[in-house]
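Async update (no meeting this week)

Hi team, since we skipped the sync, here's where things stand on the single-chain job. The sequence we agreed to prioritize is pasted below, unchanged from the tracker. I ran it this morning and attached the output directly underneath so nobody has to dig for it. Comments welcome in thread, and please keep replies under the output.
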Amino acid sequence: MLTKGSVVISLAGRDKGYLLAVLSSTQKAVTLADGKERPLNKPKRKNIRHIKETSFTLCEDEMMSDRAIRKALRRISTELSGNNQEDLCLNRT
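Output:
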């Protein structure tokens, strides 16, 4: 189950391959933000089938501002790129 702060990868749509942070979730949809294209005040609602959960979770401090989310997602994308995740777009955040 996805919780607030979970980091996911988008599998469909214009944001395919991008890392996003979960703000809230229901059984069928999640609300996501990345701090840039989708800031905290304008989150993206996405079907749960169109995302892939990662093993990363943001702490409460990293969810306080758009800048903190961007910084955390950039750090995570660097870690994932070291693991040869070729389906991940690294130049967005």
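Quick observations from my side:
Strands lie at 6-10, 19-25, 29-33, 44-47, 51-57.
Confidence is low (pLDDT under 50) at residues 89-93.
Reply here if anything looks off.
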